[in-house]
Amino acid sequence: MEKIRTRFAPSPTGFMHIGNLRTCLYAYLWARKNNGTFVLRIEDTDQERYVEGAVDVIYATLKKAGIDHDEGPDKDGGYGPYIQSERKSLYLKYAQELVEKGGAYYCFCSKERLETLKDENGIGKYDKHCLSLTKEEVNAKLQAGEPYVIRQNIPEEGVSEYDDMVFGHICVPNKDMEDEILIKSDGMPTYNFANVVDDHLMHINCVIRGVEYLSSTPKYNLMYDAFGWERPQYMHLSPIMKDAQHKLSKRYGDANFEDFLEKGYLPEAIVNYIALLGWSPKGNEEILSMDQLIDMFDIEGISKSSSIFDEAKMRWMNGEYIKKLSVEDFIKYAKPYFDASKIAGKYDYTKLAQLLIPRIEIFSDIPEKVNFLEEFKEYDVSMFEHKKMKITLDIALKALTLCQDTLAKVDVWTNDNLKEILSSIAQANEMKTGQVFLPLRLAITAAASTPGGATEIAELIGKEETLRRLDFSINLLKKAL
Ligand code: GLU
What we know:
mainly alpha, 11 strands, 3-stranded antiparallel beta sheet, single chain
């Protein structure tokens, strides 16, 4: 069997939409799964949309996402150049060949004439006016330097059909298709033409792309046929939606890979999540590494309907990835968030990491989870009351006073040692451990909930600060009683 060759063909827009990244991922998975080749091609024929540095964004995104292409502008596999603007001279030659073969023709119609073909809504098919020009007439016009485009010659009757790997049989009446422009008046190819020529010349035999191309594909197939080239297989993918009505789009924000990284998602978690947007693996396991994705990816699991982007689900998944990080790796990602929070540079980041690893979903949760350490202030003492633990204000005061006396004498200020000491305070005074730990935690944080308990936080803020806060809280309670 012929080796599978897939490609990802982004336009350099300066950002990577999550939907495009998913298309890229599927093309990559399909190539890897079949021991095939994954090609990166830059589609920059639309010079107006060109953004400086945009190709670097594409490389950087693929790298972060763990998707390594086998061929591309930076990895010649013998089918280059892999940037369409560097292939410019090639397209005209092939368009001329297509004209020779009857699959296309020169069109010299003026803008004004084309306007007359449109109705009040600006809709109207080109009427094949220039198809009737003789070869001599065409040559004369070309020699006179008349501006022209080259259009595809679509049969007026019959149907065009193909089998899509996801959507099955697709059949479009030829009369519903227009003789679209293949070469523009500036000599540049349109997407319609360039994708066919490039996919053929790059030996792409499996085209994986967005469903918006599903119904134009018969047009492309007509070109393959006219050239006498073998058609590729096609796998079209349904869009990712924000909700039932709206596509995930840049306009709504949050549709870009980089935005999610900035928000504190791990690239592996994003990739894992988007792999499942539009494809369901067999079995229930959802946390899947790239190798597992390659192993499990299949056509049957690809959905024909659109999928809804559920950020809450992606957050959860990211939390699962964070739980697996080592403290060192966690700190690497978390440091900018620590540094941007109120605790910047103030506490032992390793200890904070140990507290936070099981407790956050995305890194941008960090400031909100740690700021309390620096926000100690007067609070409502009724927060000490805890029915289930049988904690009243009196019990709380008793616990805190005992803690104050004992902790003042403690030298080994570690979580483990403090835990032992608090437990023995409870035991010696016939109190439940919670009746000592809970009041102390509140007394030194002033916060209803905190990542980590009394002794972990006491260790973090240190002996002096613990005793200072304890004193403050005891006075607060005394005033209330
Ligand atoms: N450059 C096109 C896009 O970004 C690629 C479509 C295709 O994969 O054929 O939509």
